[in-house]
Amino acid sequence: MQQKALWLLIAALIGINTFTVEVRTYIDIIGIDPSARHSETYLELPARPHIVVAEGERSRIYTGADTGVVVFRNESGWTRLPVTPKRTIHIVFRQTPSEKPQPMLCLLALGSKNRRIILNYPPPSSVWHLPLGVAQLAPLLQARGHGVLQRYGHIAGVEYVLRTQGGPPIERSLHVIRDPPSSISDLHAARMHFEQVSSSIPTNDVFVVERNNVRYTSKDSDGSVAGVLRAIKARESNIWYPYFKEVELPIAMEFRLDIYGISISDEKQFIPCWILASMVKETLPNTLVVLGGNLWPRIKGAYHLPEFAELFDYCDAIIVREGYRPIVELAETLRPSDTSGTVWRDSATIVHINPSTPSPTILEQLPTPVFDGGARQWSPDAVYPLQTMSNCPMHCGFCAISAASDTYLERPRMVSLQRVARHMIALGTHRFDIVDETFLIQRQLTLGTELKRLGYPATWHCYLTITNDLLDQGLCHRLYDAGLRGVQLGLESLSPDTLSRENKTWNTPGNYGRILQNLRAAGIQTHVFIIIGIPGEPLHHGLRWLPFLEQYGDAILTIKAGRYRLTNRSPEEFNNTHSDRIVVEETDPAPLHLNRKFRYCDGTISRKRVEAMRDLLEQACRHHWAYGVTSTVPWWINRGRYTWEELRHMAARIPAQQELDLRKSLPKIRGIIRDELRRDVELDSFEDVLNFSRTL
Ligand code: SF4
After folding, report:
1. Which of 172, 362, 491, 676 has its CA 20 to 30 A from that of 202?
2. Among the four given CATH numbers 1.25.40.10, 3.10.20.90, 3.40.630.10, 3.80.30.20, the one describing domain 380-677
3. Is there an atom of ligand 1 within 6 Å of 392 CB?
């Protein structure tokens, strides 16, 4: 009898020490709009920013307050409905400090399937796109019994700073970009409004929402660990600090979480990511702060630096490849040291890099992604990203896009097209953004066939290699019939020699024009990439693009002309392919940046000259018929709602775009022509360069 009482006492003590009983208040909110204007529904809570729920979405909001007001649109205006939160009792597992795990709690944690996890994709990034990574991880974790809250900080954060600076009129512009009937004039006014408000925010950083881009560079973004530490120390002056403090931290505190995951894929998210991590770690020291996303594999060289260890004061682990397995393992154990594919620091401040999982995730088995990060992308309808294949089979020399794949430079892992079609149906929308590095032609045709068999109409936008197969006009039409509506093509160079050096021999520059015309004739929107300054290519080759764009511009919708970058982990970076053409700085002065610093061996090529040539192409883009309209209707997410003809019609109603000031570039172009072609030409305007280019 005495022994039984003792066991009961031990059980009670374990229970008291292990679990916490909490009373929580919540409101269930459903996005409705009886007026059929597709307006969002708002929840107003005292001393908190409004919570926005899209039409048709459901959300449970833990309020921590006694009152709330639901605001939704009806035919005659806005209806305000006071609501009283409901109460619920939660028994939750107590959190375990990650650095000093208590053996008993860890033992119990092994059996627990009830972690609470936030996955945040922080600002700033493209507000027109949704992050596929966190949308894939959320259902994976939920299927294992964990509670997951996604946060699209990249949208909510940008809107927060715009609202703070622009006041109530910003709401009108935010409404316009999501309102299906908005005219091109409305959209242009909204675009200029965002640009004017964002560029007037007082900050030492660069921040502007312009055209199809959210531009941001932190003043501390010099690629060094010291820069990150400086930014964390002075975080209160950072443009994103008020958003993190007023919005993200209260949510994290209310959610009572075990793991706070921050996923980034963009260099501009880097400093904000660390600021957010530092704030979460400071406020919730027992929460495991984990960083992930496809940026981290590309700064692998930095993890060995002694100073990098200090950054683990602000996070517990960094996932450096695919996140599927590591996040599941972390949720099981809360121990970065036992988790595959993580970087972490031990108590002796030594940084460790754990090997990746030996058995990469079978993508076929992933659940359908869930897109509910609490903010809608900037478009009238939902256009979700999907992945049908991990890893690019092509291995171009300059490209490290697939570096985060667990099978980088090995055979790609595929999802069956039957499964892709099922995901589309499960998501219930009809336009998709396929994010594969290249969505192979045959797979697109098969997906079209499968969708037809299932009776589900869907269209998509994707990246595709520009092979000579596309000379077949019938094939372009079949791709359109399958569902292809927009395609991004890497033209890169007009020189077969350059393309061959970059391992891109399937590109045939002589066929670019006809292929673009074929795609245009089939009704498929085209975006082209051009690279200036590829090692070994004379810079004056860049001039050949001007007559090319003039001749085939009708068959091109958007153009991206970029400067050559030596990207970390690209085949030519780690194979030193261009060792006789460029000199790479041995000690990387910016180890946290994605690209290496280098100089050209050829003394006539300099970064300034490359930039002058790039500026010239930028001017050509501004002269392109679609520049204004595609800047106002950003990305296929929005443009995919229109045909080529409709976009042409809209283009005529956009005011003329601002010209670039080429006064500094023209002398450099003249220098390139003099040094490479031994010709002395007068160049006083863009038209002079264009006339000269036609003679090449
Ligand atoms: S440039 Fe395109 S085709 Fe080449 S490796 Fe990268 S993603 Fe693949």
Report:
1. 172
2. 3.80.30.20
3. yes
